[in-house]
Every structure is written in structure tokens, then in C-alpha cells.
Amino acid sequence: xxxxxxxxxxxxxxxxxxxxxxxxxxxxxxxxxxxxxxxxxxxxxxxxxxxxxxxxxxxxxxxxxxxxxxxxxxxxxxxxxxxxxxxxxxxxxxxxxxxxxxxxxxxxxxxxxxxxxxxxxxxxxxxxxxxxxxxxxxxxxxxxxxxxxxxxxxxxxxxxxxxxxxxxxxxxxxxxxxxxxxxxxxxxxxxxxxxxxxxxxxxxxxxxxxxxxxxxxxxxxxxxxxxxxxxxxxxxxxxxxxxxxxxxxxxxxxxxxxxxxxxxxxxxxxxxxxxxxxxxxxxxxxxxxxxxxxxxxxxxxxxxxxxxxxxxxxxxxxxxxxxxxxxxxxxxxxxxxxxxxxxxxxxxxxxxxxxxxxxxxxxxxxxxxxxxxxxxxxxxxxxxxxxxxxxxxxxxxxxxxxxxxxxxxxxxxxxxxxxxxxxxxxxxxxxxxxxxxxxxxxxxxxxxxxxxxxxxxxxxxxxxxxxxxxxxxxxxxxxxxxxxxxxxxxxxxxxxxxxxxxxxxxxxxxxxxxxxxxxxxxxxxxxxxxxxxxxxxxxxxxxxxxxxxxxxxxxxxxxxxxxxxxxxxxxxxxxxxxxxxxxxxxxxxxxxxxxxxxxxx
Length: 601
Prior knowledge:
Blueprint lengths: L19 H11 L3 H35 L2 H49 L3 H6 L2 H22 L2 H19 L1 H8 L2 H38 L1 H6 L3 H53 L5 H42 L25 E8 L8 E8 L4 E5 L6 H8 L7 E6 L2 E2 L5 H7 E4 L10 H6 L7 H10 L3 H7 L17 H15 L3 E5 L7 H15 L3 E5 L3 H4 L4 E6 L2 E6 L1 H7 L2 H15 L1
Parallel strand pairs: 3-8, 3-9, 6-7, 7-8
Antiparallel strand pairs: 1-2, 1-4, 4-5, 9-10
């Protein structure tokens, strides 16, 4: 189990059999499919009526046509029975088809809603919740709701109608014999309640185990190179075995309860049959009951326990679905990221000519609300100015970028973009103005061209190739990749070197041509040869643009107009490189360490 605060996913959710609050929230997903569900309900009611007709027609044949030797009547009745069977088959087919397709449509709508919600969640949400557990919400939990729609919600109405119809027919045929059948019903309810309680716990354990397993697999499969590098294969396999064993134990426990429950119901049904034969046989001998009525009683009695056992199973579907719905709506209830005004209604106010492109005003921030990462940060970046931010690891450099891109909100202070608070911008406008070249490059499992355009309709192939030429990656793509720009990149760009992935990120930023560029340690992971290749490309990338550069390597910031030195979340020094070197402060020490490291290489 995980117990995390602040919008984390919770595995240990105790679902009820039925929760009207959750059902009300599910109604909007059902409403677009009202016609289909209504048709399924009509078909289920028709199937219930057909189920009741078969024993009654059997009784008529035995009591009316067979004793009198009415061959024509018997033939017509046999044709009617055949018609009932055919109608049942067709009804079941149509009902199954409608319910299953409707369930898939509802799942599609729900998954679209969930994925859309996930795409608008604040980044901090993903800091707290493993991707594997989020995947469980989109897959297993939605599947559980599909069972509710296809096998529970509508079908249980048919079971209830069938049960009530059988009760009515039993009372109509012979109320004394009906009471004999009803005498065993308490045994059914006792067995059902015991089964329901135990299997509910097992189902909950299964869902929790599946969630843990998905979380583990996502983490360890992604980090498999690290597992192998440090020889942790056996240890990670042992951990997975433990999680897998929990799932197996819970599942086997469920199988055991089902294996016990259904035979118990069969035994109770056999007891009812024996009582019908015994008591009904005496009534037939006494002339109080016809043979056809007793045969009908036997058939109705056998069918009497089917909807009861079906409803017992559907109770567990309801319970599992309620637990899944509670998890899904817990996710949907997490507040989405504040995204500013709608783009269609927003128009950029004219920026004062004197307003800097970027301005931080006494900004403070903490990821956990306790340990400060940034404290009272204030600086400006003027239009077409290149400002570099340097500092040791953990000083808060990347956090400044995250706040500027509005991935996180500052605890205090203001961040201005062209003189306007970033909170007042629509998210799309921020993304349109700022281009990011990150240290960790993410590439999708698609073509080189699509990894550069990211599906942007205005970026054509000519623009892609020109961007690649300027960042010196065109020759590699056209000469070393058999399919050129159509080459499909492996997952996370595994078939490309770190330097090649970095060059592609430069090409992506150049193709998008944002007026403000943020480089987050963009050359920290490339070798010296590749770094030299991209220096001139970077000049073209930065030409005429405002740039905020986070860097470790001095070569990246040599052309910076100004350098800001961070240390422990505070600005310690600021100025041109020669000024900072003359002060012999933090930047001077940083410069000396870099020079020694470069000389050693």
C-alpha cells in the first residue's frame, strides 16, 4: 500500500457494493448511450419472459396434448418451443452485442477523460505518483467499470425480473408447493452473504496487487540498465516474485471461494428439487397437482437459483466497480493545473518597451513545502540578452526554468514575461513564446522528422532539414540512417547516442523558432567534439533571441552578456565574466575547477 498526501494514488480503497454518490457521477458517461442501454434493457426483459415461457409450455404439452393424443396441438406446441429457443438465442446475441459495444464506447469516453485530465495535471502530481499506478487507473480500473456496464448494471435488472417472474409462476401454479421451494431460500442467502464478504476482500487484494505490480514493472523495466549494471537482477527478481506471489495468493483465494460457492448453490438447488419431487409427488398421487405442473415446478425450481447465484457474482462486480470508480474519481477530483485564461479570449497587452523579457521578483519556492529550494530570487533578462545561470548541483538552477515555464508555482514573489505576470498568460501562449532545450532529451518512438515537428502542422520537411543542417545533424541522418528522416527512433532514443539526441533537440528548438530560448545544461552530456560542432549551431539558434542558459561547461556561457551565480537557492554573484573573475569569488572558483578539468581531458 502507499499512503501519500497531496493527491497521491491510493491502493487500499474499500469499495462498497453500491454507492449512490459514485453512481450519480457515472451517469454523465452513460447518458450519451441511453438509447443503446434502453434497447439492451428491453432485450433482457424479453429474455426473462422467454425463460418463463419454456416450463409453462412444457406443462401445457404434458397436461393437455399428450393425454388427449392431440398430435396437431403437440406439433404446434413443439414449434412454439423451438421458436422460444430461437428467440432466446437471438435475444442473447443482440443483448451481448449491444452491451459489450456500449461498454467499450463508455470505456473509450472515460479513458479520454482520464488522459485529458492527466495531461492537465500539475507536474508535482507526477512527482508523487508512480507511472505504473497511474497506468492502473487507465487500464484495470476502467476495465472494472466496463464489467459494471456490460455484466452488472443492466443484467441485474434482468435477474431480478426473472426471479420475480419465477416466484409469481410458482405461486400461480401451486402456492403450497411454492412455499416448499422458498423454504431453502434462507440457506441461499446465508451462503451468498458469507461468499460475498470473503470474496470482496480477495478482490480488493487482487486490485491492490495489480496496482503494485504495474508500478514495480514500470519502474524496474525503465531502469533495467541500472539493475544490470549493478548486478541487481536476482534481488529485483526476488522483489517481483514477492509482489507476484501476493497477486497469485489473492487470486487463488478468490478461486477457492468460487469453487466452494457454486457447488453449495447446486446442493441447495438439488435439495429444492428433492423436496419438489417428494412433496409434489404426494400431491400428484392425491390429485391435487398435475404431472405437467410438477414438471414445470422442477424446471422453475432449477431456474430459481440461477438468478440468485448470478446476482451474488454481480454483487462482487458492483463492489469491484465501486472501488474502481472511487479510485478513478479520486484522480479526476485532483485539481488541474491553473492554466490561465482561455487562449481564444486572450489578447496580449502591448508590452512596455522598457519591460524586460523575463523578470523574477523576490521569488521563493519549495518542492515539499518545507525545505526551500529558492529564496528571494530577483533578476532581469532584457530583450535579446543572453543571461547564464551557473552554480553547483542542487543550487536551484533547473527550478528557475520550471517556474518560468509554469510547471510549478512560486511560494511567493512574481515572475513576469514581457512585463506581464506568467499567471495571466494562457498556457499555450507561454509555450508559444518559450522554447526549451533540456538536459534530458525525450524522443518518441516515431520518425526523426516527427520527433522534430512533434506534429506541428506549420513545420514542413524543408524547415526540418534546414534546422538539422544548422545544428550539424543533417549529415548523420541522411548518410548513416538508411531511411533518413523517416528512420523510426527506438524507445527513448536508445539507438542514438546522447550527443545525437542532444543535436536533435537543438534542431527541434530551431524548427519551432521561439523568440525566447531556455537552455538547461544543453551540452552537459556531449563529448568535446560534438560540443564544438554545436557551438556555431547554437550561435545561429540564439541569434536575435532572448536566452536564459543553465550551464556547467564554461564554453556554453562564453558568449553570455551576463552571468548569475546561484548557491544554496540564493543569488550570490551577478555580472559579466571578466567582472566575476576579477572578484575572485564563487564564479572564480568555479572557473578554476572547470579549467583544471578541461586541461585534464
